[in-house]
Amino acid sequence: MRKVAIACLLAALGQPALAQQPNCPPNNLIPTCPNNVIELRKQQEAQRQAQIRAQQEAQRQAQIRAQQEAAQKAALQKAQQDAAQKAALQKAQQEAAQNAALQKAQQDAAQKAALQRAQQEAAQRAAQQRAQQDAAQRAAQQKAQQDAAQKAALQRAQQEAAQKAALQRAQQEAAQRTAIQNAQQAQHDAARKAAAQRAQQEAAQKAAYERKRQEDAQRVLSKPAPAPVAPTLARPAPVAPATGFAQAGAPARTVINHRSADGSNLVVQQNVTSTGAKQVTAYRQVEDPRTRTSTRTYLDGYRVTQAPTYVSRTLPNHATYTQYDTGLRSAALPGGKTVYKEQYVTVRSGGAERRAVQRTVYMAPAGGGYVPLKTQVVQVYEVVNVYQRPVYVYRPVRYAPVFFTVLAVPFAAPLIAGPQCLVCPPPVPAYQAPPRYENSYDLLGDMQLAGPLIDDPLLPARDASGNVPAARDNVRNEVDDLQRQLDQQAHDNAELQAALSQTGLQRTSLAAGSAADVSRLKVPDRVREVMRKQVRLSAAQHQNGKPLLLSDIVESGFAPIYVFQAAAPIDVEDVRTGAPCRLAAGDLTEFQKVPDGSAGAAPMSVIASRPGHCEPNQVVHVRYEDLQEMLNAFSQRVEENMKKVNACLTARGGCMKT
Prior knowledge:
- This protein is α+β, with helices and mostly antiparallel strands.
- Among the domains are: 104 residues; 305 residues, no CATH class.
- The strands form four sheets. The protein has a 13-stranded antiparallel β-sheet with strand order 1-2-3-4-5-6-7-8-9-10-11-12-13, with helices on both faces.
- Helix 5 packs across helix 9 and helix 9 crosses helix 11.
- The protein is elongated and about 225 Å long.
């Protein structure tokens, strides 16, 4: 029993070999033997399961260790990342702090610089204000002096106007007396001629009566003498159907109209102007029934085309000026190149819409011709009612006060007109005194007078010597053909011969030697002084942004001496006789009588004009629309001239060549 117990104890303790007993053979089936087959298999299976469990446990432990190592590695990486992020955050914070400090330093520097600039600008403004105040005080003193001078000049002008009116009345009365005497002389001559004709007729009738009486006496001696025969007047010579002769308000106008073989009419007009001067004008008139246009070509090449919707006026080698029935205008060069054109636009101002006229300028006058502009210029004209008639008014551009301060200061040394002066106008007007300029406004006044004569809008261009070049061949041929027809008609018409012998035929640009006459417009000194006053007035209106209105001129005390300068060709009529004539660029007129707005035109007395235009001292009717257009052109020219003079005075070299 002791052996069995020891064997069991050893088997329980895992020592089967020790528990085997000598009586337990290998691979026995004895249940009590620890090495029986069944027990042995159980032990092997237990060992195998233990190995499997050990392997699984080892794998599990290896996985746990691997997971722990991975976790440790991830934790290490995360710690490294956190450390890197923390370092990057610290670096970013440091850089932000540095940037903030730099920005604050820059802001402090900028504030300091801005404060310095503000202080400098304040000092400059203070200096400029002091300069402006000084300039304003000087300008006020000059204005007071100018006002006093203007008042004195106005009084002198009024006295001159009164003297001129008295002189004109005396001239008119003398012209009327001369006309009456001429009429009486003509009546006396006509009566003598009629008496001579009656005497001749009576003598012829008496001779016929004596012959008849003698014949009757020979046939019938006892028959009484015949009764006297009533005298008869000689019938006038028949007039060809193509030629007419009429007296239209004699002695104001004599019209001769001859139809040519080509269907055109040769018209010769002998007019007597309001000054008593005689004018003989010839033109060819062509009617086109298809387009309902009528074209007149004058001996000087001037052409007027009247159409149902427009009127165009053309001079050779230059632009055609067209005015439409809508009131819009345009100008174009030969070949169809547009100088400017107009259109209606709607402008919004102050919350309200109003109609305006927009002019687009493509070319500008220069040296007697036109040059294209690099940039188109757009000008806007307001539609304003003047004496219940819509007119187009140019509103000037406003400039800073310093712009006018430069012009108000007298010149340090007088400017002498000549090649050395950069802005002095050439001597195209003929002045009574040589040009010499003490201040800007005297210079601007002469620039205004000479400007249209230099640019010659819509007139023939001149070469470098100031001469008008030969007209185009077609215009010259047409004029020559017209001259031949006129000579032929004069050869066959005694009255036309008499008219041409009494006064020369009206000519301008195509006449011999006309270039010098056209270039030299005779301007009286009084007109020169008035023009300088008008420039000052226009400069003041530019400074205030006010337009130059015809109604303002008419209602002012300046109206009796105000000078209007034509800018574009217009056709007008003599006030007394209705004789037509024209005004063009540079011609000067003034009110013969200040209008009251009741009529559609104003009576204007011509001061100076070019040959072939309305005669000096002639009184003509000019429409209010044309007068306002003259004021618009005057204001625009003042604007351009002020910019030229201002640029010259502020330049380093000044206005004189050194």
